[in-house]
Design a protein that fits this description.
The chain is mainly α and 118 residues long. It has one domain. Helix content is 68%, strand content 0%. It starts with 19 loop residues before the first helix and ends with a helix.
């Protein structure tokens, strides 16, 4: 048998990652309806920063920030619960799949033995 030399494929070099300034420029230049802003938009959005700057009382700012924090925290807890439930579903599905594969192997084993001895 002859030995085969593996040919290495040269891949192009990766571009340098964007700088913080480039990322900020990109985000600032994106329209408000850009998916990056709308795909995970909260149901109860926090008060925009410019409205907070216009607020008369700093206490109101703190109150609005606190409300936004509590709402975000609740959404994170709900997302965590959903992830736990989905993880459990996937684990059960994996166990079911393993059980079914084992059953299929058991069913196929006698047929294979019969074919080889016959």
């Amino acid at each position: 048998m002859g030995s085969k030399a593996k040919k290495r494929v040269l891949l192009p070099t990766r571009p340098a990652p964007p700088t913080v300034e480039q990322i900020l420029e990109d985000v600032r230049g994106a329209p408000a309806e850009d998916p990056v802003f709308t795909i995970l938009a909260p149901e109860d959005p926090p008060v925009p920063f410019r409205m907070m700057e216009d607020a008369e009382a700093p206490g109101e700012q703190l109150y609005q920030q606190s409300r936004a924090y509590v709402a975000a925290n609740q959404r994170l807890q709900q997302a965590g619960n959903v992830l736990r439930q989905r993880c459990e579903l996937l684990q059960r599905a994996g166990e079911d799949l393993e059980r079914e594969v084992a059953q299929m192997k058991q069913a196929a084993l006698p047929a294979a033995e019969a074919a080889s001895s016959g």
